[in-house]
């Protein structure tokens, strides 16, 4: 049994298949973790969703911003852009079934640390015994317990019969500070933004929404990558996608950025956890 982790697929179905073949993925014994943004912009979001759903318990998904936006489009709250290439998916005979499945996926996944992870990552045994994955990361204003509580809270709302109303409420950038999130709606919106849209934060840990460049290209001096501000990741490995301009590079030993911009013509990246081996598939154009 091996654990594989893959970055943002965004409808790059052929590249995902190529990677699964490259590693001889066996759904009877291996597990594939997907870091969110399964859909949008790429050529085949429909086949991607059908494949991941068909993997059953062998696929562990977290929702990304594009996945949530798709749910909102399907619910009639937003209009799809042509550039998202979602028309075929939205017209599919099984779209309702796919969207019901997608809406039940969590914002946070975890799996146990391996004994070999501890010395290599200088982890303190007894703090957190798990590796975590979310689409964007963990808010610097949260401990692990906050992240777990908020992920469960959001998932319960999206999986409920009230899904459409909650999807309507997710749009917006306020509050961007957890200390100011008082109502359930505030907490819902903040949590979705932290889990699925965050890249940079201000020094107090509040979310910044505009800067997408890698840290070495960022010229703003009052914002920091979330992983520079988070205390949690000093003792907890974190896997995430979303930030394509990092191209898998990060100064922090304990975090694993997996979005390498396949949909932009770069590559899809898969990490095999037990030996930290990376598998790469160049975008097929
Ligand atoms: Mn994203």
Break the fold down into its secondary structure elements and pairings.
Layout (H helix, E strand, L loop, with lengths): L2 E4 L6 H10 L8 E4 L10 H10 L4 E3 L3 H10 L12 H4 L4 H9 L5 E4 L4 H5 L8 E4 L10 H15 L4 H7 L14 H13 L3 E3 L4 E2 L14 E3 H4 L8 E3 L14 E3 L9 E6 L4 E6 L3
Parallel strand pairs: 1-2, 2-3, 5-9, 9-10
Antiparallel strand pairs: 1-11, 4-5, 6-7, 6-8, 11-12
Helix pairs in contact: 3-5, 7-9
Bound molecules: manganese (II) ion.
How would you characterize the overall build of this protein?
With 285 residues, the chain is α/β, with parallel strands linked by helices. The chain has a single domain (3-282), classed as Metallo-dependent phosphatases (Purple Acid Phosphatase, chain A, domain 2). 31% of the residues lie in helices and 16% in strands. The strands form 3 sheets. It has a 5-stranded mixed β-sheet with strand order 3-2-1-11-12, covered by helices on one side. Helix 2 links the parallel strand 2 (31-34) and strand 3 (59-61). Helix 3 crosses helix 5 and helix 7 crosses helix 9. The longest helix has 15 residues, at 144-158. It is globular. The mean pLDDT is 95.
């Amino acid at each position: 049994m091996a654990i594989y982790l893959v970055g943002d697929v965004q409808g790059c179905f052929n590249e995902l298949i190529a990677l699964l073949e490259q590693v001889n993925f066996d759904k009877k014994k291996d597990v594939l973790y997907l870091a969110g943004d399964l859909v949008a912009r790429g050529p085949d979001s429909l086949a991607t969703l059908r494949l991941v759903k068909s993997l059953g318990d062998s696929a562990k998904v977290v929702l990304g911003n594009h996945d949530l936006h798709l749910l909102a489009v399907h619910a009639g709250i937003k209009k799809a852009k042509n550039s998202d290439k979602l028309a075929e998916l939205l017209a599919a005979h099984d779209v309702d079934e796919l969207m019901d499945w997608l809406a039940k996926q969590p914002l946070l996944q975890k799996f146990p640390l391996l004994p070999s992870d501890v010395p290599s990552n200088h982890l303190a045994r007894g703090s957190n015994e798990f590796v975590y994955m979310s689409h964007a990361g963990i808010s610097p204003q949260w401990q692990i317990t906050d992240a777990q509580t908020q992920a469960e809270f959001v998932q319960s709302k999206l999986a409920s019969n009230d899904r459409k109303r909650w999807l309507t409420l997710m749009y917006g950038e306020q509050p961007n500070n957890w200390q100011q999130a008082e109502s359930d709606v505030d907490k819902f919106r903040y949590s979705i933004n932290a889990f699925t849209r965050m890249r940079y934060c201000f020094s107090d840990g509040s979310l910044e929404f505009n800067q997408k460049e890698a840290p070495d290209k960022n010229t703003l001096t009052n914002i920091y990558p979330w992983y520079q501000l988070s205390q949690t990741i000093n003792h907890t490995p974190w896997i995430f996608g979303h930030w394509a301009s990092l191209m898998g590079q990060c100064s922090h030993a304990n975090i694993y950025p997996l979005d390498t911009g396949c949909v932009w013509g770069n590559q899809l990246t898969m990490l095999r956890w037990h030996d930290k081996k990376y598998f790469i598939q160049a975008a097929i154009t």
